[in-house]
Amino acid sequence: MKVTFNDIMKDIAELYKLRPQDEDDSGDAYEAVREKTENKLVSKGYDEESASDLIEDLLLLMESLQD
User: Fold this and answer.
1) What pTM does this model have?
2) DSSP string spanning 10-31?
3) Rounded to a whole number, what is the distance in angstroms from the first to the last CA of the chain?
4) Which of 26, 33, 37, 52 is 20 to 30 A removed from 44 (C-alpha atoms)?
């Protein structure tokens, strides 16, 4: 499967919308999309830890741009 920058950024935008807002939110949809995104990054050559870190960094960027 060919993974593009736009594919990853669409997933990040979806993750940002789905992120749990409080402790009562189980975040099942969020976790499913996050795992899918991590798998895409791993397929592009990232190790799992780097993929996870990149997702976190991009989510923080999205959050900072919303302020």
Assistant:
1) 0.84
2) HHHHHHHHHS--STT---HHHH
3) 35
4) 26
Domain that holds residue 9: 5-19+26-66
Residues 6+ apart with CB under 8 A from 52: 38
Tens-digit pLDDT profile for residues 14-52:
999 998 877 666 678 899 999 999 999 999 999 999 999
The domain total for the chain is 1
CA distances from 34 to 45, 61, 67 (A): 17, 16, 23
Rg, Å, the chain Cα set: 12
Task: Say how far apart CA 56 and CA 7 lie, in whole Å.
Answer: 16
The single residue listed with the structure tokens 């969020």 is 30
